[in-house]
Amino acid sequence: MNSRLLRLRFFVLGAPALAGFAVMYLYPFIRSLRYSMIDNTFRQNFVFLDNYKGLLDNQMFRMAAWNTFVFSVVAVVCVVTLSVALSLGLTRLSSRFMFIKNILISPMIIPTASIIFVWQLAFQNDFYRELTRHAGGAAEFWTIVPIYLLYIWKNAGLNIIIISAAIAAIPAEIHEAAALDGAKSLYMHRTVTLPLIFPSLLFVIVLSFVGALRVFRESYLFFGTDYPPDIAYTVQYFMNNHFNRLNYPVLAAASVLFTVIIAAMLLLIYSRENRHSDKIY
What is the pLDDT of the chain when averaged over all its residues? Predict the structure, then answer.
């Protein structure tokens, strides 16, 4: 098939998605970029980067950005590590895996309000408060633990299904050849299995990272306040509070800055995946 005709077909098929992206994401982002450079929505005086400077000088924003970074890194590492470990074990139970899949996907089906109700019963009782009170320097850690557990419980199931499918797609001859060469189970998975499922693993990491950024709803319902404990105060809380105050220029500056950082991280991840795919395939 002619390469020009093939590119034309790709463009025609992708045009609806590109149009939707432009209308729903690109245009609002450009409007937010404009709002981030004015003093307020009434006078609309151009102040260039003053809002960004004020944002970086804001102690609450710095705390929120640091908490978001820590939560994203720690939660993603925990959920991906757990998902890989369980996937390696579950692929050996292929006959029962369909039943286990239904159990794993159930956290995504259960309404959030029901989950939060159970979590509040488990972590907002006198026993847990007493545990937190006597934790000393680790009291803040125990305060945020329920959000970590909730995030892992909700996101691990889908990750396991994706990783297990990638492992199952590896030809059995590859593992058999590695076993004949004397490779033990742990060494085989580290040097054979994980490199072969690396593209799927990066996809899971991206999904987990997006899930970490979307945990605000569960956190907000669990703590029931616009100002949770300091360790749980993330960028989403900061943006939500400024939205309630109609402080749109600061809100727009925060959203633009946050979007640029996330886009840079995703581009870095996908460029790493492309380099790895070129080496493997």
Answer: 83
